[in-house]
Specification:
This protein is mainly alpha-helical. The chain has 5 helices and 2 strands. It has a two-stranded antiparallel sheet with strand order 1-2.
Amino acid sequence: MNQTERWHPLHKGLHWLTLALVIAAWAAVELHEQFAKGDPWREWWELLHFSLGFTLLLTIVLRLYGRAHFARPALIASPWQTLASKVVHVLLYLVLLAMPLTGMGMRQLAGKHTELFWLFELPQITTVNTDLAKQVAWIHKEFLWTALLTLVVIHVAGALWHHFIDKDETLRRML
């Protein structure tokens, strides 16, 4: 794979789209909580949250494709920073894949109908199991959400470290 000085526009665009989708999905689920069960607005925000999560899943798959097919700039880092960067990125990708998959699994196991952007409904592919749905919900809402926030803080801290302490081009290459 050829090394470049800057990130490919696909990498940059999908990086920032991922951030926007995570923020929008979080906002949608928070707004969903502002309405009582049975309120049509609660269901509207819930559907938007799920649709954004599904879009995030597709975006992460596209990002992984891009990583495999487009050159990336070499890391500007010491050996320990290189290792930390690789570990954090692998974990970020895993969590960003797991979040929408567990969200989908949670809905499927609970027997909830799921539309995507009010266009079509996903088919029910699992047997309803509300006990398992509750366990998957805990993984989705508590474990993975906390892991995602933690990894994002580490990722941003690393970028800021490179920018302000190491004073290198790491952050500028993604902007």
